[in-house]
Amino acid sequence: MSLNSIFQYFTPKDKKVFFPLFEQAANNAVVMATILVEAVNTTNPATREDLIRQIDKLENKGDEITHQLYLELGKNFITPFDREDIHQLASAIDDVADNIQGAANRMSLYRIDDFNEHIKKLSDLILQGSIELEKAIKELRDLKNKRNIADSCIRINSIENQADHIFDRAVADLFLYETDAIRLIKYKEILSSLETATDMCEDAANVMESILVKNA
Amino acid sequence: MSLNSIFQYFTPKDKKVFFPLFEQAANNAVVMATILVEAVNTTNPATREDLIRQIDKLENKGDEITHQLYLELGKNFITPFDREDIHQLASAIDDVADNIQGAANRMSLYRIDDFNEHIKKLSDLILQGSIELEKAIKELRDLKNKRNIADSCIRINSIENQADHIFDRAVADLFLYETDAIRLIKYKEILSSLETATDMCEDAANVMESILVKNA
Amino acid sequence: MSLNSIFQYFTPKDKKVFFPLFEQAANNAVVMATILVEAVNTTNPATREDLIRQIDKLENKGDEITHQLYLELGKNFITPFDREDIHQLASAIDDVADNIQGAANRMSLYRIDDFNEHIKKLSDLILQGSIELEKAIKELRDLKNKRNIADSCIRINSIENQADHIFDRAVADLFLYETDAIRLIKYKEILSSLETATDMCEDAANVMESILVKNA
């Protein structure tokens, strides 16, 4: 940072700026996950296509929120938490959204119309994880209820563990029963995006745990 | 950093050291992308193999430049930009080169000889992105023409968007028309490396935008 | 970090805390790699399954060590090396363990029973890399024998290069001789996890080289 610009960095607006953006990003992920659950449960292909287009648009919105967070990080010298933690938390929420959109996009691109229980269960776990993420993010603002944040992080870890097991079983099933290699590739990629979305919830939880430790 | 070594970190050589290395790295990516475009457009397999070997060697050269940048970052306490930005920018340029080499290497390894329009167009976008990247990097030295850097970043973002759409269409086509699963895997991996190279140009642009914000 | 918690960060326990954890993490990777080599060389499927279960448990143990390292990083303001280096070194060792477990897990999940020379050789290189990693980590504590650390890093780089070449040849062979696309996918993923484990050894070596430069 150049010396002649250092003073503008000291502004008291840090909390006013960062928390609303984090809350918007987390809420956007919850909305995307809600629509994903609808998309894998509907039996109407046209409805599904429409839902997937909504997910696409929300992912763009999420990108803009993340970009805004990075810009604010560049402009603000004083931040409510360590800069690195803010950057990693913003990235992790963005990665949740990216992987929801990636899974939905592949469902459309690969013309998938048979949604098995593994896909439905993983989508449901992404929604649960996103909801816990949003709850924890809302508590970050004042850190009065650290116990609540810690509890959400523990639940996110447990959700990710469940997703891991479902993913492993789903992939094992594919290799046992799917004889069409191209179908196998399609389903494996969709399962992989879904599972990665829960990994990214866990990444966000890890950053929040680290923030809790530093503010103990 | 240990206290007894802190003084050697304050040397005024920062600009002399970092900018030439960044310019070499960016130029190396442009040369690699130029050769890639030649390789996917030649109809002579022997010529193509020779070009791919050249890309391999340039990737090694790029690795050395990146390594040198990291070493200088370790040795210099005062840096022209935030240390994290220098690290990320060097990594992003290295990742552009890695993915160009990865795509070229797979073309050779998988004995690909049919280069469709999607592959040619993606290679062309990598070259355009690398050229914009080099232009922006050259302007970083004095930051007199911030507008030029910002414009290059905007063009890189647009190039990455175009690459995304071509990649999605190319993969959809593969799943619709390619009945040989093994050929599908080969082409999908090559397309994926090419598309990732443009993502890495965008990563570099994001770091430069963040540098601009901090020096506004 | 909040002002009212800054004082508790200044404790002289840094060396007592970080080095034993790093040594445990590196040793855990060596044990995992040793068991992996056994698993790919045994002809008894039941023995192999048992070994893979052991690798699973050790990976959990490694996760706990890494988590402990991150917690200490959050709690300690003074660290023996740059915080970023500690974080990256812990991540890299964790990634070695993750990829060993990932490869072993796939061997079990995909019911692989034919372990070719490429798989055996890559497993052996992971073991060699992990042993060099542990040697270097033990020397980090006092930095008296920097030459030894540098030598281990050079050997890790050479091991990673060998692994790259074996991986490329193994994948080329798959695409030349394997006509069953599903078997091709299975083997390619296992080879990829094994090769990535040696990449992660190299990542760890890069961090240690950077620590050496800063403490020159």
From TrEMBL, chains A, B, C:
It comes from the Bacteria. It holds the Pfam family PhoU_div. Signal peptide: none annotated. This is Pit accessory protein. Belongs to the UPF0111 family. It comes from Mucilaginibacter gotjawali.
